[in-house]
Amino acid sequence: MSSTPSETGPLRLGIAGLGTVGIGVVKIIQREVETLAARGGRPLVITAVSARDPKKNRDADLSGYAWETDPVQLAKRDDVDVFIEVMGGHEGAAKDATEAALALGKHVVTANKALLAHHGQALAELAEKTGAALRFEAAVAGGIPVIKALTEGLAGNRIKRVMGVMNGTCNYILTRMQSAGLPYETVFEEARQLGYLEADPNLDVGGIDAGHKLSLLAAIAFGTRVSFDKVELEGIGNVSIDDINLADDMGYHIKLLGVAQMTGRGLEQRMTPCLVPAESPLGQLQGGTNMVVLEGDAVGQIVMRGAGAGEGPTASAVLGDVIDIARGYRRPVFGIPATQLADPVAARSATPAPYYLRMRLQDKPGALAKVATCLGEAGISIDQMRQINQPDADDGDAIVLIVTHKAAPADVSHALSQFNATGVLVENPVAIRIEEV
Ligand SMILES: NC(=O)c1ccc[n+]([C@@H]2O[C@H](COP(=O)([O-])OP(=O)(O)OC[C@H]3O[C@@H](n4cnc5c(N)ncnc54)[C@H](OP(=O)(O)O)[C@@H]3O)[C@@H](O)[C@H]2O)c1
Q1: DSSP characters for 172-193?
Q2: For position 164, what pLDDT does the model report?
Q3: Rounded distance from Cα 37 to ligand 1 centre (Å)
């Protein structure tokens, strides 16, 4: 019997992964039977499921579905038209089962950004070869339908820039540090206790998870192969409460911000802590919420804000993809056929931007002048400067804050290296990019 998905009759779903996302999908399908059938033009029917532990209590009635211990076997079942991969991990079961489904021409819906960031090109080529859909709305910014917006609603635009706060845990940590005046280590521990962190916290706080998402958006926005290995990554572990407070005094908030843009020097993809104006939509973003900002030549700027994680929002995104498949709607995985995606040249350095500099200077005559000279010699001009004499500072040390005019990152690095030779710095200076949003 052929296992190629049928285009009529009930759409038969196999769900691999019965955790937060998988159970969320099961619940909506069980609760909204008629609405989903009306919207998809055919009933959605779960035929089989898979997870590691068949005995676990899962907060949903799964008794009507066949159980497969091996997700690859689930993907290959004749009574599965759409394989829903919500297990996670970029190797092993998730990759093997996704490949097995696509090789048989079965549609795949996944929430797995790691899988696509690492293997998106090969999987897209396989899907397009066998005529299967490969959809991943839930993989980027949870419930925010940003993949659909970029591939469809904005298809008439030349995309100029894509930006986003796309890791709710990092945004929670940064906004909580600010509101409670607590240091990073304390809030990190709070986040761990609340269960907000991945088993490997570096995926969150190291910017890797958000970097995966940015690489997928960049591929669609600029028609390039997914190139996660070319994302400049810096996590939030070095963001200090001092910088959060001092930046706030100067009208900025610190965010782990992803930015992708095509420049004359190549594709720029950055996921790094940045200052953004406190009054901007990105600056105002609180807690675990996500925000994606899309800029097109015709449409201008679009801001999308919503839940980036959680059972309901992520299942919402999975169901959006499933309904599209039920309707028979198909599109290339990354907006244009995978074989036509360009191999991106990575920009060797980021576009010039203003920088926030913080340094602690000794109380010596001419100390500030020496620092200003280093900046001048590196071709960097000063926009604002503020000196803060802290009551607890030793021997009258002073904190000096500088906001520069636009400067090339290499020039900023050069100036920082020259600061050391002045002999007036008490500790290493801090430099954080200010993103114009
Ligand atoms: N949670 C979110 O808010 C969210 C948001 C966006 C995207 N995502 C993505 O969605 C995916 C799933 O996330 P989640 O939060 O739902 O994870 P989760 O709660 O940890 O659930 C993972 C599920 O996959 C099953 N599983 C893992 N390895 C398996 C294997 N080798 N064979 C069979 N089943 C296996 C687990 O089985 P057991 O239950 O038996 O252990 C569990 O049911 C990930 O790619 C994640 O990045 C999650």
Answers
A1: HHHHHHHHHT--HHHHHHHHHH
A2: 97
A3: 26
